[in-house]
Design goal:
It is built from two helices and seven strands; from the N terminus they run ββββαβββα. The protein has helices at about 75-80, 125-135, and strands at about 15-20, 30-40, 45-60, 60-70, 85-90, 100-110, 115-120. Strands 1, 2, 3, 4, 5, 6 and 7 form a seven-stranded antiparallel β-sheet that branches.
């Protein structure tokens, strides 16, 4: 029996706008990596402050995908078995140490814009488009 990854459910699949629109204005915009509180999957009452890539908007919420500097290429088969899909996005100013980052493709986060602690940096357009293309199968 093949393992199937869960699909992410949007509130209203017609309404969400996935777009690239970064502006260096201090507010979180699609295409930017920002820092916010992200709940743990196994215990949503707990979490930590971490970078996320804003990919769009749904009503008053931002839609985002979490980032990590942990290299999941080493344990990609285990991550896949556990239902986690990652994509390398390289380095950027969102990480002070300029460590390579990965984005989680199959965990869509709803972020209240008022909960964003700081703007990190914009992802370049080509990489943003590649992330959206890779995440789309999970965003239905």
């Amino acid at each position: 029996m093949a393992f199937r990854l869960p699909r992410l459910r949007l509130r209203n699949p017609v309404t969400p706008r996935l777009r690239y629109a970064p502006k260096p204005d201090g507010r979180p915009d699609p295409g930017e990596v920002v820092w916010t509180w992200v709940p743990y999957e196994d215990d949503p009452t707990q979490g930590k402050d971490r970078p996320v890539l804003v990919i769009g908007e749904d009503g008053d919420s931002l839609l985002a995908l979490q980032l990590t500097s942990r290299d999941h290429d080493v344990d990609a088969a285990q991550e896949h078995r556990d239902g986690r899909e990652w994509m390398d996005i390289g380095t950027g100013a969102w990480d002070r140490e300029r460590r390579p980052s990965e984005v989680r493709l199959n965990r869509l986060l709803r972020v209240d814009p008022s909960g964003v602690r700081r703007e990190g940096a914009a992802l370049d357009r080509a990489m943003f488009d590649a992330v959206i293309a890779a995440a789309k199968p999970y965003l239905q």
